[in-house]
């Protein structure tokens, strides 16, 4: 059994992704064998966690050095005196990197076992404890206080409540059981707390649960890159579409020194509430969050939040931030993606509606930043090529800082456009050598900067 096997994909899904990555232009640029090798390497990398945990400093309330000192003390306590370096990103000065320790191969496996679902297992690889809903199976003799070896069922074959499992599983480390087997599977639907507290994870990552909450925001490094590419300036009026939970929204406001206006839209009330909560926690007052469908952003009668005024989108904006799609592919370690093919294609009409709306808005703006968290090339480079072919007055702008690899080869994506696009690979993010493992780091975030011709 391999420690971290290639990510498990349904056959039709893998073929769909492979067809995009091995298009005619890519094969001509490398050769079919090399292109296939790169694709297989990508799938192998996806099952590993990142080499570091990244947090963004809220520079609106404190300096990076002050927060770095506070964080050092917090981690020293958390790791029981173990000194863990805190690195400042050389190109993104408000981003701190904490190296993830692992994989640790000297952890003794226990007779008592617990099996968790693949999604829960992915979270454990990022430093989470095991919560009761994620536990699928537990040894028949497991009691509260026992040292338990935790495994991930990457193929979803383990039956709920099983007493043993001999299928394909990945070892995640050891922990202390908070409950007995009976307590876990007692049938109480309201039981949601920690079931196993991880003490010896294969990958040791810091926990940021209530750690300096007003000073730090736990955020994937590629997401922080997006906001720096946007380069918000004090006094600007910026539109953030699909903004929840507010990571980039609050980053924009902080980089603007909370001077200006950030309009944040999301169509679900609970997500809008989260944006407002994060803005309040970080002490940012330039953010106005609306429950608003971004695909209908020019139809003012579509406002859902009756407690606030209309965002008055017709007045025009400066930069616009558009998250077209977020599958979280490549952003978190994944030993299994069990999706069917339909979700990969079903979202396309929604994307087209949002893209057309953003083009209309971009005609009133200086720049539009388009980004996705998806491995599907038709949603990344393909969507940009389509936009340039469909709409007049658009041109590619250079993404600065450009820390990632350029966009992939694709029909209609000329050399100039290709260089203007960023396809994230974590080992190319400009981090100190100690902060990344080039053989395991990869991600799916894709960024494009579109300059729109003014029509007003």
UniProtKB/TrEMBL annotation:
Keywords: Methyltransferase, RNA-binding, S-adenosyl-L-methionine, Transferase
Residues engaged in binding S-adenosyl-L-methionine: 242-248, 266, 293
Highest rank taxon of the organism: Eukaryota
GO BP: RNA methylation
InterPro entries listed in its UniProt record: MeTrfase_RsmB-F_NOP2_cat, MeTrfase_RsmB-F_NOP2_dom, PUA-like_sf, PUA_sf, RCMT, SAM-dependent_MTases_sf
Gene3D superfamilies assigned: PUA domain (2.30.130.10), Vaccinia Virus protein VP39 (3.40.50.150)
Molecular function terms, GO-annotated: RNA binding; RNA methyltransferase activity
Pfam family of the protein (one): Methyltr_RsmB-F
Signal peptide: none
Transmembrane domains' residue ranges: none
SAM-dependent MTase RsmB/NOP-type domain: residues covered: 141-453
Active-site residues from the entry: 373 (nucleophile)
Protein family: Belongs to the class I-like SAM-binding methyltransferase superfamily. RsmB/NOP family.
Protein name: SAM-dependent MTase RsmB/NOP-type domain-containing protein
Organism per entry: Cnephaeus nilssonii (Northern bat)
């Amino acid at each position: 059994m391999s420690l971290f096997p290639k990510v498990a994909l349904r056959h039709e899904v893998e073929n769909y992704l492979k067809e995009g990555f091995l298009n005619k232009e890519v094969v001509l640029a490398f050769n079919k064998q090399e292109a296939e090798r790169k694709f297989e390497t990508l799938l192998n990398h996806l099952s590993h966690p990142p080499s570091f945990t990244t947090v963004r400093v809220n520079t609106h309330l404190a300096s990076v050095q002050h927060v770095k000192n506070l964080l050092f003390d917090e981690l020293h306590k958390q790791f029981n005196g173990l000194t863990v370096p805190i690195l400042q990103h050389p190109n993104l000065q408000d981003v701190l990197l904490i190296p993830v320790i692992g994989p640790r191969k000297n952890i003794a496996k226990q007779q008592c076992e617990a099996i968790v679902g693949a999604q829960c297992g992915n979270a454990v690889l990022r430093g989470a404890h095991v919560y009761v809903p994620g536990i699928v199976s537990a040894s028949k003799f497991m009691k509260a206080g026992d040292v338990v070896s935790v495994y991930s069922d990457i193929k979803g074959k383990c039956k709920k409540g099983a007493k043993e499992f001999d299928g394909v599983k990945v070892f995640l480390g050891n922990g202390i059981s908070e409950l007995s087997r009976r307590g876990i599977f007692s049938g109480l639907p309201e039981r949601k707390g920690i079931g196993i507290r991880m003490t010896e994870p294969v990958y040791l990552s810091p926990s940021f649960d209530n750690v300096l909450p007003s000073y730090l925001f736990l955020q994937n490094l590629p997401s922080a890159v997006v906001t720096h590419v946007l380069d918000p300036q004090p006094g600007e009026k910026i539109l953030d579409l699909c903004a929840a939970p507010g990571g980039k929204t609050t980053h924009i406001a902080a980089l603007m020194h909370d001077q200006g206006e950030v309009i944040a839209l999301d169509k679900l009330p609970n997500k809008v509430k989260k944006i407002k909560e994060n803005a309040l926690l970080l002490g940012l007052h330039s953010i106005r969050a609306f429950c608003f469908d971004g695909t209908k952003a020019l139809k003012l009668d579509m406002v859902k939040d009756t407690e606030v005024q209309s965002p008055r989108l017709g007045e025009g904006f400066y930069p616009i931030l558009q998250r077209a799609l977020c599958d979280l592919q490549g952003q978190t370690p994944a030993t299994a993606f069990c999706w069917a093919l339909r979700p990969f294609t079903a979202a396309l009409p929604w994307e087209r509606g949002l893209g057309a709306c953003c083009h209309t808005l971009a005609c009133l703006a200086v720049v539009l930043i388009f980004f996705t968290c998806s491995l599907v090339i038709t949603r990344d480079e393909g969507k940009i090529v389509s936009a340039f072919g469909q709409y007049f007055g658009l041109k590619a702008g250079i993404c600065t800082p450009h820390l990632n690899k350029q966009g992939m080869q694709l029909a209609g994506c000329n050399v100039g456009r290709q260089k203007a696009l960023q396809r994230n690979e974590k080992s190319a993010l400009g981090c100190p050598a100690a902060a990344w493992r080039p053989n395991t780091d990869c991600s799916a975030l894709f960024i494009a900067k579109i300059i729109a011709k003014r029509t007003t």
